[in-house]
C-alpha cells in the first residue's frame, strides 16, 4: 500500500512531466497501431484494388499453353486485352460448361470473377454506316462493304447457380471496370454487342441518342458472317480499352458458338482471384510441385498463392493449363512489399523517438527529484527499491498512454482504409498485443538507461547540496 501511495504522489508532484511521458507513448502507440493494423490487412486490400485492373490467372487448353511456352507468346495474350487481337484463330478448345467448376476449388471464395472467351475472326458488315450528321460524317465510299474482324464470345454479367446451391454473378462487365463505355453492356444470350472505338470508326458505327454528338455513338446493326451463316447484332455500346481490344467486338458466347459451329467451346478463361504474394515456396512449387516435401505441399496448397490457385483450377477443368499473369502477380508483390516496408519503418522510427523522449524525460525527472531519492536511500531504501519505484511510476503512466494511443491508432487505421482503399481496416488482436509488447520493451530500455543515474546518487552529498 505504501508503494502505491508513493506512485500516486509522484503524479501530483510532477504532473507535467508525467503527462509528457504519457503523450509520447500515446503518439507512438497511435502510429504503431495504425501502421501495423494496415500492414496486416493491406495484402487483401491491395489485391482487391489491383484485381480491378484485369485477370491475374488465365486458363488455356494444354496444346495452346505448350505453343505459348515454346514461342514465348504469353505476354501477347495474357494481358487485359484477352488476346482478341491475335492474327489467327485457336484450334484447340475447352468446354464452356466446365468453367463453372472454377468455383468448386479449395480457394473458391478467393475467385472474385471469371469469364470464358471464344476468340474468332469473322466477316463484319455494318448495315447502317454513318453517312450524315456530326461525328464521323463521311461518304459511304470511305467504309468497306465488309471487313474481317476479331470477335470475342464471352459472358457479360451471367448468373450461375453452383452445385452447392449458391449463386454467383460473373463476366467481363466486372473484369473490365477500367474501360470507358458509351452505352451499356449487352445482355447474355441476346444478339447484342459492344464494339471497340477503333473498329466502330472503321465500320462507321453510329449510336443514336448519346448526349455527346461528336463522340462515338451507338444504335446501328452489324452483321457477322462465317460461311453461309449470318447473325445481326445490335450495337448497344462502344468501349475504349486503351489497347488492341479497341479493334475487336464482344458478343455473347452462345451466339458466336452458333455462328462458328463451335458449340460449348472456349479457348480461354480469364480468372480474377485474391492471392497472396509469392515467396520462395510459391516459386519452388510453380516450377515443380512434385519437388515439394509433404509439409511444404500442405502449406503451399492451403495458401492462396497464384500458383496454388492455378494448380487447383487445373485439377477441376479437364485438359486445361492455368497460368498466372506474371506482370500482375509481380506488381501485386512489389507494391505490397514496398507498402509494408514503409509502414514498418514508420513504426520503428516512432518507437525510437518514444524511447529517446522517455529517456530524456526520466533523466530530467530524476534530476528534479534527486533530494527525494537521496532521502529514500538515506533512510534505508536500496538502489533496487528506488529503481523499482521509478520503473513502476513510468510503467503506470506509459500504460495509460498506450491504451489511449491504441484507441486513437484504430481510428487512424480506419481513416487510412477509407481514404486509400474505400473500406475499413480489420484490426487483428495480435496488432494490439504486438504494439504493447514493443512499447513495453521500448519503455523498459529507455528507463533502464536513465535509472543508472540513481546508482550514482550519494545521499550525503545531495542532501548537503553538493
UniProtKB/TrEMBL annotation:
<feature type="transmembrane region" description="Helical">
    <location>
        <begin position="397"/>
        <end position="421"/>
    </location>
</feature>
<keyword id="KW-0812">Transmembrane</keyword>
<keyword id="KW-1133">Transmembrane helix</keyword>
<dbReference type="InterPro" id="IPR050250">
    <property type="entry name" value="Macrolide_Exporter_MacB"/>
</dbReference>
<dbReference type="Pfam" id="PF02687">
    <property type="entry name" value="FtsX"/>
</dbReference>
<feature type="domain" description="MacB-like periplasmic core">
    <location>
        <begin position="19"/>
        <end position="273"/>
    </location>
</feature>
<comment type="similarity">
    <text>Belongs to the ABC-4 integral membrane protein family.</text>
</comment>
<protein>
    <submittedName>
        <fullName>ABC transporter permease</fullName>
    </submittedName>
</protein>
<dbReference type="GO" id="GO:0005886">
    <property type="term" value="C:plasma membrane"/>
</dbReference>
<feature type="transmembrane region" description="Helical">
    <location>
        <begin position="341"/>
        <end position="363"/>
    </location>
</feature>
<dbReference type="GO" id="GO:0022857">
    <property type="term" value="F:transmembrane transporter activity"/>
</dbReference>
<keyword id="KW-0472">Membrane</keyword>
<dbReference type="Pfam" id="PF12704">
    <property type="entry name" value="MacB_PCD"/>
</dbReference>
<dbReference type="InterPro" id="IPR003838">
    <property type="entry name" value="ABC3_permease_C"/>
</dbReference>
<keyword id="KW-1003">Cell membrane</keyword>
<dbReference type="InterPro" id="IPR025857">
    <property type="entry name" value="MacB_PCD"/>
</dbReference>
<feature type="domain" description="ABC3 transporter permease C-terminal">
    <location>
        <begin position="345"/>
        <end position="459"/>
    </location>
</feature>
<feature type="transmembrane region" description="Helical">
    <location>
        <begin position="427"/>
        <end position="448"/>
    </location>
</feature>
Amino acid at each position: 500500500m505504501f508503494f502505491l501511495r508513493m506512485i500516486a504522489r509522484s503524479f501530483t508532484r510532477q504532473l507535467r512531466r508525467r503527462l509528457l511521458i504519457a503523450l509520447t507513448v500515446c503518439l507512438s502507440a497511435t502510429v504503431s497501431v495504425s501502421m501495423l493494423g494496415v500492414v496486416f490487412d493491406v495484402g487483401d486490400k491491395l489485391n482487391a484494388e489491383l484485381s480491378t485492373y484485369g485477370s491475374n490467372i488465365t486458363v488455356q487448353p494444354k496444346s495452346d499453353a505448350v505453343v505459348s511456352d515454346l514461342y514465348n507468346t504469353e505476354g501477347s495474350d495474357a494481358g487485359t486485352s484477352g488476346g482478341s487481337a491475335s492474327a489467327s484463330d485457336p484450334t484447340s478448345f475447352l468446354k464452356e460448361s466446365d468453367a463453372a467448376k472454377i468455383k468448386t476449388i479449395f480457394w473458391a471464395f478467393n475467385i472474385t470473377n471469371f469469364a470464358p472467351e471464344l476468340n474468332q475472326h469473322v466477316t463484319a458488315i455494318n448495315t447502317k454506316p454513318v453517312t450524315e450528321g456530326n461525328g464521323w460524317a463521311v461518304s459511304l465510299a470511305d467504309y468497306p462493304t465488309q471487313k474481317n474482324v476479331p470477335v470475342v464470345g464471352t459472358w457479360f454479367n451471367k448468373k450461375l447457380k453452383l452445385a452447392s446451391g449458391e449463386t454467383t454473378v460473373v463476366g467481363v462487365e466486372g473484369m473490365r471496370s477500367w474501360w470507358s463505355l458509351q452505352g451499356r453492356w449487352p445482355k447474355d444470350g441476346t444478339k447484342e454487342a459492344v464494339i471497340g472505338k477503333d473498329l466502330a470508326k472503321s465500320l462507321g458505327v453510329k449510336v443514336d441518342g448519346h448526349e455527346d454528338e461528336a463522340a462515338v455513338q451507338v444504335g446501328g446493326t452489324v452483321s457477322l458472317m462465317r460461311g453461309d451463316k449470318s447473325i445481326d447484332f445490335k450495337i448497344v455500346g462502344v468501349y475504349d480499352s486503351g489497347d488492341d481490344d479497341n479493334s475487336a467486338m464482344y458478343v455473347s458466347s452462345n451466339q458466336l458458338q452458333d455462328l462458328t459451329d463451335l458449340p460449348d467451346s472456349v479457348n480461354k478463361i480469364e480468372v480474377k482471384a485474391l492471392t497472396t504474394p509469392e515467396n520462395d515456396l510459391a516459386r519452388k512449387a510453380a516450377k515443380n510441385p512434385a519437388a515439394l516435401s509433404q509439409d511444404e505441399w500442405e502449406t503451399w496448397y492451403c495458401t492462396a498463392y497464384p500458383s496454388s490457385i492455378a494448380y487447383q483450377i487445373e485439377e477441376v477443368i479437364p485438359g486445361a493449363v492455368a497460368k498466372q499473369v506474371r506482370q500482375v502477380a509481380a506488381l501485386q508483390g512489389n507494391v505490397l512489399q514496398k507498402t509494408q516496408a514503409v509502414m514498418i519503418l514508420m513504426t520503428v522510427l516512432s518507437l525510437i523517438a518514444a524511447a529517446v523522449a522517455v529517456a530524456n524525460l526520466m533523466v530530467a525527472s530524476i534530476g528534479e527529484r534527486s533530494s527525494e531519492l537521496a532521502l529514500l536511500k538515506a533512510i534505508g531504501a536500496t538502489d533496487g527499491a528506488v529503481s523499482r519505484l521509478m520503473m513502476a511510476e513510468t510503467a503506470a503512466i506509459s500504460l495509460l498512454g498506450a491504451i489511449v494511443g491504441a484507441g486513437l491508432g484504430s481510428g487512424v487505421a480506419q481513416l487510412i482504409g477509407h481514404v486509400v482503399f474505400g473500406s475499413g481496416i480489420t484490426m487483428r488482436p495480435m496488432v494490439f498485443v504486438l504494439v504493447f509488447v514493443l512499447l513495453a520493451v521500448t519503455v523498459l530500455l529507455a528507463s533502464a538507461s536513465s535509472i543508472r543515474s540513481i546508482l550514482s546518487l550519494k545521499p550525503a552529498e545531495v542532501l548537503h547540496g553538493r
